[in-house]
Write a structure and sequence with these properties.
The chain is α+β, with helices and mostly antiparallel strands. The chain folds into three domains: 88 residues, 3-Layer(aba) Sandwich (Rossmann fold), CATH 3.40.50; 99 residues, D-amino Acid Aminotransferase, Chain A, domain 1 (2-Layer Sandwich), CATH 3.30.470.20; 63 residues, Dna Ligase, domain 1 (2-Layer Sandwich), CATH 3.30.1490.20. The chain is 32% helix and 27% strand. It is built from nine helices and 16 strands. A five-stranded antiparallel sheet has the order 14-13-12-15-16, sandwiched between helices. A four-stranded parallel sheet has the order 2-1-6-7, sandwiched between helices. Helix 1 packs across helix 9 and helix 2 runs antiparallel to helix 3. It is globular and about 60 Å long.
């Protein structure tokens, strides 16, 4: 098989591991910087071009698209889909998961446990918005933020009002969520491939920090999931339409709640914490499922 990895750098850990796994399983791999791709939107013969040449002969692609380039990156994925190339995560599913508000609405509609969440726009809504999420402390999140950027814990009502006013002054979209105190600054990252959680780790925030992201100094360790946590993670990935997903959960007093469903989960932290070869499991999934034209949306979303 010929498998393309859409990534902006060959040196990223996740990209390197996928290239290694592709080679170890006897396939041909190519890293493609999706930001440098350009496309011919022709109805009779759509194509993707890169470094002066048309990209042809691919059986599958693995999108590793950063949040800041979601719009263009998913356009490239969609073009490959129109060419009949199998994408492990489809363009529509990536777009759906990247829109935090849309993702929460979809998860809520399907009965997935979530933190109490509010969303508003007009300044006059602030007081009632905080009441909706049962008062402070609250977590305020920029919709476009990743890796803990744009996430603020407001411990008092006055602090929450100040942060909301500041975000509104920037014309930024944001969510306000209840603070799950009992989680103790930890969350669980579940790596879902297909219909299974193949690896899971508990991430613990460093002292004085409530965000458990490893990029922010958090630590990670192997964790044993409950059947409910395992089921919640698989269902959340399925609702987003993702075949490969990092599902972040919090352990609350009323069961597991989903914080986020990530369409390009990093492999370094979870492989180190669990000792699992996640990269090879992704390639194995592609081997079993890749088929020309096997795209649910066929580039339509």
């Amino acid at each position: 098989m010929k498998i393309g990895i859409l990534s902006t750098s060959k040196n990223l850990y996740s990209t390197r591991r996928l290239v290694e796994a592709i080679g170890q399983r006897g396939h041909e791999g190519q890293v493609i910087n999706h930001k440098r791709c350009y496309m011919n939107i022709a109805s009779h013969k759509p194509s993707v071009h890169y470094n002066g040449q048309a990209l042809t002969g691919f059986d599958a692609i693995i999108p590793r698209i950063g949040a800041s380039v979601t719009f263009y990156g998913t356009a490239v994925v969609r073009q490959f889909e129109m060419m009949g190339v199998y994408s492990v995560n489809e363009s529509v599913a990536i777009t759906r998961s990247r829109d935090k508000l849309r993702a929460f609405q979809l998860l809520s509609r399907k009965g997935i446990g979530l933190p109490v969440t509010g969303f508003a726009n007009a300044p006059g809504d602030t007081d009632d918005l905080l009441n909706l999420v049962e008062g402070t402390p609250v977590v305020i999140k920029l919709l476009e933020g990743t890796q803990g950027v744009g996430v603020v814990l407001a411990e008092t009502r006055k602090a929450a009002e100040s942060v909301i006013e500041a975000f509104r002054g920037l014309s930024a979209n944001f969510l306000v969520q209840e603070f799950i105190k009992e989680a103790g600054g930890s969350d669980i990252r579940c790596l879902v491939i297909g219909e299974k959680v193949v690896a899971a780790m508990k991430r613990q925030a460093k002292e004085g920090e409530f965000r458990s992201n490893l990029h922010r100094g958090g630590t990670a360790e192997l964790v044993k999931l409950t059947p409910e946590e395992r089921s919640t993670a698989v269902r959340a990935a399925r609702i987003m339409g993702l075949n490969v997903a990092g599902v972040d959960l919090l352990r609350s007093n009323h069961g597991p709640v989903v914080l986020e469903v990530n369409s390009s989960p990093g492999l370094e932290g979870i492989e180190a914490a669990t000792g699992k070869d996640v990269a090879s499991t992704i390639i194995e999934f592609i081997e079993k499922n890749a088929k020309h034209g096997k795209t649910r949306t066929r580039g339509s979303g």
